[in-house]
Design a protein that fits this description.
With about 200 residues, this protein is mainly beta. It has a single domain (about 1-115, about 140-195), classed as Porin. Helix content is about 10%, strand content about 60%. It has 2 helices and 10 strands; from the N terminus they run H-E-H-E-E-E-E-E-E-E-E-E. The chain has helices spanning about 1-15, 40-45; strands spanning about 25-35, 50-65, 70-80, 85-100, 105-120, 120-125, 130-135, 140-155, 160-175, 185-195. The strands form 2 sheets. An 8-stranded antiparallel β-barrel has the order 1-2-3-4-5-8-9-10. The protein has a two-stranded antiparallel ribbon with strand order 6-7. A hairpin with a 3-residue loop joins strand 2 and strand 3. It is elongated and about 65 Å long. The chain starts with a helix and ends with a strand.
């Protein structure tokens, strides 16, 4: 039931829009993730082990003017966290983008669902004190967070061709209930946004 509600939550804005889907921007980005609080997570994306990910998102424009845009997107991501897990995210971001000639600055909030698949076996203690090893089908978690970004538009208004760089902070909830209920993540990403018209 939770999965169905998440899918409806992510798809609803797209179903309510009356414009051509080809006119709206699609973005593809790659990111490096670090499990630390900011600003340490920003620095760790450069000097810690690489935890790469890729994201594809479809953006809806709620209000688009010459100098600003209120936007929301729905995205899917894949991340590989070395030695620990790989994960799939379904999320949405809503925010404000301020345009200065061909440059843009944005801030947004995000929420979504993450399914993590552990790369190691899990040992579960039994009532008699022994352990059994289980693989598991994955661990569901919610993600919430915020982010900031910079962009440069290489195209025209009707033909979007935008490169962007951003920093994303998100919390995985619940991570481990007994000692780390909320796990902070920081991700530095670079990407390209375009439309199909």
């Amino acid at each position: 039931m939770k999965k169905v509600l998440v899918i409806i939550f992510l798809a609803l804005p797209g179903l309510m829009i009356g414009q051509s889907w080809k006119a709206n921007p699609i973005s593809i980005s790659v990111f490096n993730n670090a499990t630390l609080l900011p600003p340490a997570s920003l620095i760790a994306t450069f000097n810690q082990p690489i935890h790469l990910g890729i994201t594809a998102a479809y953006e809806f424009g709620w209000k688009d003017a010459m100098k600003h845009k209120w936007f929301q997107n729905a995205g899917i991501s894949y991340m590989y966290h070395r030695y620990v897990y790989q994960a799939i995210f379904l999320n949405t971001q809503g925010g404000y983008r301020w345009k200065i000639n061909d440059f843009s600055v944005e801030g947004y909030l995000q929420a979504g669902y993450m399914l993590a698949f552990y790369l190691t076996d899990r040992a579960i203690m039994q009532s008699d004190g022994t352990y059994i090893v289980k693989q598991g089908a994955g661990k569901p978690q919610f993600i919430v967070g915020a982010g900031i970004g910079l962009g440069y538009d290489l195209g025209k208004d009707e033909h979007i061709r935008r490169i962007f760089l951003g920093y994303d902070i998100r919390m995985q909830i619940p991570f481990v209930k007994s000692y780390v209920p909320v796990l902070p993540n920081g991700a530095l990403y670079i990407g390209f946004q375009f439309n199909l018209e």
